[in-house]
Write a structure and sequence with these properties.
Elements: E1 8-16, E2 19-29, E3 32-40, H1 49-63, E4 68-70, E5 91-94, E6 97-100, H2 119-124
Parallel strand pairs: 3-4
Antiparallel strand pairs: 1-2, 2-3, 5-6
Length: about 140
């Protein structure tokens, strides 16, 4: 997934002292950074590590002159992913197009298991920009 792919993927680790607190698997793509997967220590909640990872990735994207940060999957109503919806300027890929997500609480994706497209089909139908190398500094 990381080594055998043409996508430039990085593992970014976040430590507090010598303790590993969070990790983000991040793709560098033509127009931004894509937070493919991240995980972090849930406690103490006051550290808000999920939010911190996003803020740090915003800074990394700006530093690299990349206009977008893709936050990865967001599941409406998920308490574990709710922090993503607290950012402004959000868009969601829904019904095969990008749409502004002005009211995350009011979003209804009609996610009944029998009504959703299988993940393999969703991925196969994605249209992403061609990846180009990000200039090194």
């Amino acid at each position: 997934m990381i080594e055998e792919t043409p996508i430039r993927t990085r593992i970014i680790e976040y430590c507090l002292g010598s303790k590993l607190m969070a990790v983000a698997l991040t793709d560098l793509i033509e127009d931004g950074l894509s937070m493919v997967y991240s995980f972090y220590e849930p406690k103490p909640e006051s550290l808000s590590l999920g939010t911190y990872l996003i803020l740090d990735h915003i800074a990394l994207a700006k530093e690299a002159n990349l206009p977008y940060l893709y936050l990865g999957y967001w599941v409406p109503g998920s308490s574990k992913m709710g922090y993503k919806a607290r950012f402004s300027g959000l868009e969601i890929f829904h019904e095969n197009k990008w749409k502004a997500l002005d009211n995350p609480e009011g979003f209804n994706a009609e996610l009944h298991p029998m009504n959703t497209v299988p993940i393999a089909e969703q991925v196969a139908n994605l249209s992403l920009p061609d990846s180009k190398p990000v200039p090194r500094r």
